[in-house]
């Protein structure tokens, strides 16, 4: 029996390289869902890109991202949960983790810039979990790249097949609209930032006389040629392949002009998966399982330094979550109940009495949770798929106020539990090495250590740029690399050995010198 509460839920994230239009698209979705009334209501969730030392921006970013961490709304009988991801590239790890809590994604690509660096990284993370992807090619009102070239670029750079479901007529100043291949209709473009719907002309097929009223013969001729080509190259949408994460349906539009959004949203609710089964170390958990399970994928610090409370974001995987019911924290081996779980509908927070698979609830936490923690009704379970990723910048922590050593230790432990950065310990001397994806995190860390914990620290840049978790079938081989390359070995928060290298070349050399040792890009390997 399929639970209708699960069937109606669609939990996803909108991802993009900064500035491609993620925030704009999110806002338009919320407008359609009736969750907000005006454009401009979704705050730009990003720190100033050029001024990394602007702490006010960081603080704003942290404050705002609580409110917009999850945006839920109802649309056509479905409950849509959009999980927000930070716009700034330095917070990419946050985004990677959020992707562990979604069932699918919409990837926004800028038609002028094409596939950008961050797009490639995000897709790599999607591929790790076979997350279904829909692509929205945005900014068609600007003079961008050729549509066929864009599709080629997506296929080659993102290693995924594509299937266009709409096709643009013109581009930039000649942009006339899109032909919806899925529904056989012509959507006419009118540049207007405030309107909610575009004129839609329903036709039988491309030979419909009606098309001639709206398109010049040249435009219609090109559209027919293009569609014949796309049909030959890409064919029909294979939904199974989409659900397996192998094929991405593609739409063209202009988020700022609210163009192409409704068809994107309608197709999304039609094809995107409802909550699916998930792998735990012990077994596969089905969304339909009766017993409640969920995991924490994000922890948010409270902005008020007088309250050390944090909010842990729990994704529900199976069963029903209930307020004031005891659940089992599998890592701590203890029962916890939550009297104030939070639900998020657009910009509003409210108390939640019950929640279902696909939903995200915010739990007030005084230090019980780490990222990846699992809650159940008593079963010993640990969800997979929430790994740590290899950081790119490594710095050693220097204590600048020896009287506050304890505070420093505690602060670093808590901040790394929140997932702000990763901590590696190097011996001898218990050296603390912080690894991050971006420079901005170091500023966040020293700012927060000082303001929330009263500790002062500096950072000494290290030459490491890569880290690989290492394992070996025979313990002897692991010991050998750890002894011979001691200067390159650190331990992560679970005590697992990690090989730190200056660059890819050095890493490859180590792989060659120690062929019996396995090197892993993330902390999760099985
Ligand atoms: P994000 O960083 O991916 O969240 O991108 P934003 O949604 O903040 O958009 C970045 C910039 O692109 C903003 O200035 C938007 O107004 C602009 N933008 C978004 N969509 C469109 C579009 O369809 N056409 C044009 N010309 N600009 C757009």
Automatic annotation (TrEMBL):
GO BP terms: namely:
regulation of translational termination
Per UniProt, residues of the Tr-type G domain are 7-276
Q: Which residues bind GTP?
A: 16-23, 84-88, 138-141
UniProt subcellular location: Cytoplasm
Of the GO CC terms on this record, one is: cytosol
Keywords carried by this UniProt record: Cytoplasm, GTP-binding, Nucleotide-binding, Protein biosynthesis
Q: Which Pfam families match?
A: EF-G_D2, GTP_EFTU, RF3_C
Give the family, as the similarity comment puts it. Belongs to the TRAFAC class translation factor GTPase superfamily. Classic translation factor GTPase family. PrfC subfamily.
**Function (record text):** Increases the formation of ribosomal termination complexes and stimulates activities of RF-1 and RF-2. It binds guanine nucleotides and has strong preference for UGA stop codons. It may interact directly with the ribosome. The stimulation of RF-1 and RF-2 is significantly reduced by GTP and GDP, but not by GMP.
Q: What is this protein called?
A: Peptide chain release factor 3
Taxonomic lineage = Bacteria, Pseudomonadati, Bacteroidota, Sphingobacteriia, Sphingobacteriales
């Amino acid at each position: 029996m399929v639970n209708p509460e699960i069937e109606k839920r669609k939990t996803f994230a909108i991802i993009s390289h900064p500035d491609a239009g993620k925030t704009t698209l999110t806002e338009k979705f919320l407008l359609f869902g009736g969750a907000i009334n005006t454009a401009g209501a979704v705050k730009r969730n990003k720190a100033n890109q050029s001024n990394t030392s602007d702490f006010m921006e960081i603080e704003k970013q942290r404050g705002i991202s609580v409110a917009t961490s999850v945006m839920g709304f109802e649309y056509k009988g479905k409950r849509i949960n959009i999980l927000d991801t930070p716009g700034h590239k330095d917070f990419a790890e946050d985004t990677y983790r959020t992707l562990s809590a979604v069932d699918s994604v919409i990837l926004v690509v800028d038609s002028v810039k094409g596939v950008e660096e961050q797009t490639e990284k995000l897709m790599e993370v999607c591929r790790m979990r076979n997350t279904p992807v829909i692509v929205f090619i945005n900014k068609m009102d600007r003079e961008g790249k050729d549509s066929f070239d864009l599709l080629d670029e997506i296929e080659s750079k993102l290693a995924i097949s594509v299937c266009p479901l709409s096709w643009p007529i013109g581009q930039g100043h000649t942009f006339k609209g899109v032909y919806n291949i899925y529904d056989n209709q012509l959507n006419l473009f009118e540049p207007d930032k405030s309107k909610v719907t575009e004129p839609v002309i329903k036709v039988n097929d491309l030979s419909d006389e009606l098309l001639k009223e709206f398109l010049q013969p040249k435009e219609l001729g090109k559209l027919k040629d293009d569609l014949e080509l796309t049909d030959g190259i890409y064919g029909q949408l294979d939904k199974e392949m989409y659900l397996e994460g192998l094929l991405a349906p593609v739409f063209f539009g202009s988020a700022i002009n609210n163009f192409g959004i409704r068809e994107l949203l309608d197709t999304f609710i039609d094809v995107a998966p409802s909550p699916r089964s998930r792998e735990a170390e012990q077994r596969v958990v089905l969304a339909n399982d009766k017993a409640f399970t969920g995991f924490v994928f994000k922890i948010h610090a409270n902005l008020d330094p007088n309250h050390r409370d944090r909010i842990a974001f729990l994704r529900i995987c199976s069963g029903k979550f209930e307020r004031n019911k005891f659940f089992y924290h599998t890592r701590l081996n203890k029962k916890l109940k939550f009297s104030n779980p939070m639900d998020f509908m657009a910009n509003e927070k409210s108390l939640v009495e019950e929640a279902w698979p696909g939903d995200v609830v915010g739990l007030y936490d005084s230090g019980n949770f780490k990222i990846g923690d699992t809650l159940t009704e008593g079963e010993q379970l640990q969800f997979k798929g929430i790994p740590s990723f290899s950081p790119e910048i490594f710095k050693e922590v220097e204590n600048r106020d020896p009287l506050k050593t304890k505070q420093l230790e505690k602060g670093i432990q808590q901040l790394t539990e929140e997932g702000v950065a990763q901590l590696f310990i190097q011996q001898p001397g218990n050296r603390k090495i912080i690894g991050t994806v971006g420079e901005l995190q170091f500023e966040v860390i020293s700012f927060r250590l000082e303001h929330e914990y009263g500790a002062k620290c500096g950072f000494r840049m290290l030459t490491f740029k890569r880290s690989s978790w290492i394992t070996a079938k025979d313990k002897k081989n692991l010991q050998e690399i750890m002894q011979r390359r001691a200067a390159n070995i650190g331990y992560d928060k679970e005590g697992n050995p990690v090989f730190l290298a200056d660059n890819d070349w050095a890493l490859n050399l180590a792989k060659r010198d120690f062929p019996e040792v396995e090197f892993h890009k993330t902390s999760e390997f099985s």
